[in-house]
Specification:
alpha+beta, 20% strand, signal
């Protein structure tokens, strides 16, 4: 009986360890969480972003520009080590995978690090924002070509 319980215990432990890794957005706690780049509190979480490594580590940023800086300038993580990146829909706060989002660049729009880039879940929402506030709508591929402040 003791042997059977030991075997069952090992099976339960192994089953728990072999589960699929979850890469779902994590909840942000502005009292604790800070940006990986600038160390600012994530108190304006409507602009926050998240990056998951393939190993399951999560990195939080207060502004989409900080996430790009972490990867492109600081090179703290290689692009091939990234599993998924999330941005927030400025309209409703939902998390969106970065490749599925639309962005507006307007240098006069406030963001935590003054990058002037905000994200939306649909092109229609991004277009509506531009109609009211001005700026330029970018899809993900265009965002990859965007020139950030540290680039010149």
């Amino acid at each position: 009986m003791k042997k059977l319980l030991s075997v069952l215990f090992i099976i339960v432990i192994l089953a728990g360890c072999s589960g699929n890794q979850s890469f779902e957005p994590v909840e942000i706690d502005p009292e604790v969480d800070v940006c990986e780049v600038c160390n600012m509190s994530l108190s304006h979480d409507a602009y926050a972003t998240q990056l998951f490594s393939k190993a399951g580590d999560v990195f939080l940023f207060d502004d989409i520009g900080c996430m790009f800086e972490y990867v492109d300038k600081d090179k703290e993580i290689d692009k091939d080590q990234i599993e998924v990146e999330y941005v927030r829909d400025l309209d409703n706060g939902d998390w969106i995978q970065i490749e599925k989002a639309y962005f507006v660049y307007n240098p006069d729009v406030w963001t935590p690090m003054a990058n002037g880039v905000v994200s939306f879940g649909s092109k229609e929402s991004a277009d509506a924002f531009v109609e009211k506030e001005g700026g330029e709508v970018l899809n993900y591929e265009q965002l990859l070509e965007h020139k950030w402040g540290w680039e010149g």
